[in-house]
Task: inverse folding
């Protein structure tokens, strides 16, 4: 009876002591075991989180592919002068115009009034404008739309255009110098076709040689005047004697004026010109 009560107690104490001793001796290994288990759990959680993020990204890309966002189209107002000029039709085909060309109804009405004018020149200009507008609509390289939006409290077409451009926050395409100035003073961006044409003209530097046909007299004595293909005036000193002929000249200076560029040149030494009407200048005695 006595040993039956003592032995369980002794066994408990011995086993507890052995367990404590083993724990003290193997504490680093046990700590590493628990740490490894904890780290593995965190890594699994992190992997699951990354997989969920990838699923979200794939879902967003799928939505973009099947539901593409429509980018807002930039609107550009067309002025009467730009339509009559006609170069906007060629420019639009090059891809440099990005956006939709908008023609207000009051601009179209002005074109119609010009086309119905009793003056032959104005009538021809108006009809040319209507033809250009029709060409723009048929070619459809750039979207073009006629809008019925109006500016009730303004009478003049130019004033209507400027106010509409400020309301829509869009630029105006024009060749009209006065409209250009008024629009810029009111903070409206202007796309001037004449300025674009001047910007893309070929550059000639002093000392370069070109061939030019002398078409008319210059203002000064002995000067001859010719023109490049883009309309740039070439004033040739001593060029009058080569009237009606093509002659090689050397550029001496280039002037930029309000009306455009003006180039001055003189005949190149040894150039006799070419043409059926060429006669050498008489010798002085």
Result:
């Amino acid at each position: 009876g006595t040993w039956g009560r003592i032995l369980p107690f002794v066994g408990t104490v011995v086993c507890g002591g052995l367990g404590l001793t083993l724990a003290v001796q193997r504490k680093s290994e046990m700590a590493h075991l628990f740490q490894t288990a904890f780290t593995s759990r965190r890594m699994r959680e992190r992997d699951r989180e990354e997989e969920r993020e990838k699923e979200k990204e794939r879902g967003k890309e799928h939505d973009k592919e099947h539901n593409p966002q429509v980018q807002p189209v930039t609107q550009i107002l067309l002025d009467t002068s730009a339509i009559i000029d006609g170069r906007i039709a060629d420019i639009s085909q090059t891809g440099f115009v990005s956006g939709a060309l908008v023609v207000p109804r009051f601009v179209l009405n002005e074109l119609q009034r010009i086309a119905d004018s009793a003056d032959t020149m104005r009538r021809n200009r108006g009809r040319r404008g209507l033809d250009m507008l029709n060409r723009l609509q048929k070619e459809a390289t750039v979207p073009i739309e006629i809008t019925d939006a109006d500016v009730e409290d303004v009478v003049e077409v130019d004033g209507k255009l400027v106010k509409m451009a400020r309301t829509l926050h869009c630029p105006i395409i024009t060749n009209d110098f006065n409209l250009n100035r008024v629009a810029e003073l009111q903070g409206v961006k202007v796309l001037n076709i004449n300025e674009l044409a001047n910007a893309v003209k070929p550059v000639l530097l002093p000392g370069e040689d070109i061939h030019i046909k002398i078409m008319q007299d210059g203002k000064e004595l002995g000067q001859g005047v010719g023109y490049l293909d883009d309309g740039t005036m070439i004033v040739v000193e001593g060029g009058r004697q080569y009237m009606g002929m093509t002659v090689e000249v050397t550029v001496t200076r280039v002037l930029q004026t309000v009306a455009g560029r003006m180039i001055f040149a003189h005949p190149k030494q040894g150039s006799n010109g070419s043409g059926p009407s060429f006669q050498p200048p008489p010798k002085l005695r």
